[in-house]
Please model this.
Amino acid sequence: MKIKVAKIAVSAALYYMDRPFDYLIPEEFSETAVPGVRVLIPFGRGNRRCEGIILAVSENSDYDKLKNIISVLDETPLLSEEQIKLALFMRERFFCTVYDAVKAMLPAGLWFTEDGKRRVNDKYIEMARLAVSPEDAQNIADGKRRRSPQQANIIELLCGFECLPSREILHFTGASRQSLIALRKAEIVELYKKEVYRRPEIFTDEIVPPPELNGEQRQAFEGISALADAEKAKVALLFGVTGSGKTSVYIHLIKEQLQRGKTALLLVPEISLTPQMIQTFSSHFGNTVAVLHSSLSVGERADEWKRIKRGEAKLVIGTRSAVFAPLRNLGIIIIDEEQEETYKSENTPRYNAIDIAKFRCLRENCLLLLGSATPNVVSMYKAETGVYSYFTLPKRFNERELPEVQIVDMKKELRRGNGGNISTTLADALRENIQRGEQSILFINRRGANKLISCGDCGYTYKCPNCSVALTYHSSNSRLMCHYCGYSRRLDRECPECGGILKYIGAGTQLVEEELKQLFPDTEILRMDTDSVAPVGSHEELFDKFKNENIPIMVGTQMVTKGLNFENVTLVGVISADQSLYIGDYRAGERTFSLITQVVGRSGRGEKPGRAIIQTFTPENETIIQAARQDYEDFYAAEIQLRQLQNAPPFSDYLSITASGQNEGQVVKACRDIRRMLETSTVGSKLNVLGPTPLSVVKVNNRYRYRINISCCINSEIRSVISQILHECGTDKNFKGVSVFADNDPAD
Model:
């Protein structure tokens, strides 16, 4: 008899030992142990039980002695053949294990706890239906009318329906459960369990037709549609100014694909954008829309995933992880605000959703559309050089002018005696808006009240005991907090070192909110940051409150900068435009330009003209001036020249190898050894190696972090060398106590 061998990716395997392990498939599992299902297996010398997922099945093995699979955990395959290939691609591209990739692809609710139980069970409700014909049932009901009126009511209700939930039957008839059980025992009614989905609330009103397109939108739609119809893997960039109506183009493209029997995937960068997108798209596509993002409950996310896999959802909207949605027959993937760094995962596997989308489009011969008002410089370069197809929407949809922008020099404000965070110009503009009944949005890219607390006498500052950062003061609870490890403590009344007076330095959303309340004591102000969202449970509630109650001022972090469409917002203020300019990253200028441009674009989206005020200590900075003019072309022309001088992307690729551990000297030594390995490798001459250098925050949770930076043109040979070095770091005793990982184009 032929043996059957399963090639299994094992959950317990570390990166340096990750490979498909061979296991015998016992006869009782010959039908169920197929590629894509999870299994329980003995692993290692101690035969510790752990999970694995079958990648392939064969009839031979290179090993003589094989262990048996203990049990099969899934009734049907969780992963298709294409998804298994995607997991293997991720292992090679992002230096992770296959099982790490699989865990990123599947919702948490499908995983098992340590005692072998599913984290979330399927949800079932009891249903009832007639076990006899409606005619016979009516006769039975007539006979029970006098003696058992409750039973008669149940039977008559079921005569008009194929089936109904038991709870609803009892509610509408007023009958007791005993009456329903009696009918089941008499074999008049049948009770059974039916699986139901835990679904997030979405817009379920009437389906409305797609919005009318203007000439520029129609031209862009037709060009992009022609690419999608070709059914070949292509990438297109749609560059449209804020308010140009990119969403309307998306709606028409998706509708066309659904009419052709295809499916579609739309990614957005922030959870805060998802509710508005869901409401907009569900009004056009109804219950064919599925939602995937981290704010869903574990059960909701698992059930949405099942709806998609079963083909009940044709359009998926979500954040980064939604790129793994198990859609079949993909027609188009749209990535909105494609320049956002939130599409890059900072945890294992360190993937970029755009790379995953490209792989899926290549495998399924479909179109990837990148949309933005401030495209990533690399994407624009590829569009300019013909690698991507390129489409533009240069004007706002309603023919309105872009907001009038004024730059305020905060150095002059200081000389006038105004040491606050709200300039006189911005305060006057806010006052005028309040009087007119119009709304304003203020943006500052830091939560909390003050960046740090310092003693004016001895210079003492509060620092996190676990991380190499100063603690941020939060006025709402009078506590100092670390935004990296979560450590917190109460603030002293005086300096703990010398008893001096403490000074409050830097500003965050809470401090700006307090200043606004002092300036406008009778005006309601809404704060939008992670601290204010947590108590209410969702971004949507705060945004709805801002819109429906016409709250005059909203102050917030990046949550308020993009994708929002409030017609009564006519004023935007950028509190500290310099904040992201000087962070020591080649993308600092790009991020600053994008942030300012995006938040300025929230103003004047309705019938009323908009304006914006940018507060800065460096009003002569070219990036700030370009953002004030909303002049992406000028910014891109200057930025691409700078990138070429720096040999930065798109002219080379960046890759890093990071080491972390509790002993700083040991971590630095490990990085030096890694550098030596790189320089003496077969590709050493092709690499520009820098470091070791500490990360911007060198210690997090009592672990020191140092990095080797590599500039090169990454290819399979270089990836192979990096992978080999990671293997050596995992097996060499000199690296004991040090964790090492590689990352493509790290975020910091």
In short: The chain has a mean pLDDT of 90. The two ends are 57 Å apart (CA to CA).
